[in-house]
Please model this.
Amino acid sequence: MPQARRIKKKPAKSTRRKSKPRNIPWGLLVVVLVTGVILGKLLSGAQNNDSGLGSGLRALVNNFDADPVDDDEAIAELVEKESTEKEFDFYSVLPDIEQVMPDDLPEAAPSRTDSDLIYYVQAASFRHQADAEKLRARLALKGFKSITQVRTSPETGTFYRVRLGPYPDRRKAKTAKNQLQRAGVRPMVYSVKSSAG
Model:
């Protein structure tokens, strides 16, 4: 009689993949190796009394244990000698600002019209010309056309003003001022009497 054959069932395929062993990238191995060599040199140089790679680390550790140096007197002396802060006497800075007005004043002259004035927008004022030129370059990149005006005074010295204009009326100058404020500049508007008026 024929014998029944057993049929072996194949195991069902699992949906999980076998994880492959991860290989460490060569670049990471090189970085770890180089870092280890450098740390080893630093530590051996810190322990030995040579002027090698770790001598600075040894000096840092030795100075860390020392008492901190009190430099308050040296700093106070430097501030005393080098400080540019000045004291201002109000009455010498603004002499004769208060004036007594007579009671019988003549009739007021008609005020100037806008046609007598031209307007400028001053973006900033600097002591050094290089700073003024940097601002002009920054404004040019944002689409503003500006000029640098040099102003020298015996009391205050030389200033470099970065300004835009002239504008024919105050409204256009205010528009330019608002655009500059959106660009991160804190400008001011000022007027000058027109030479044609």
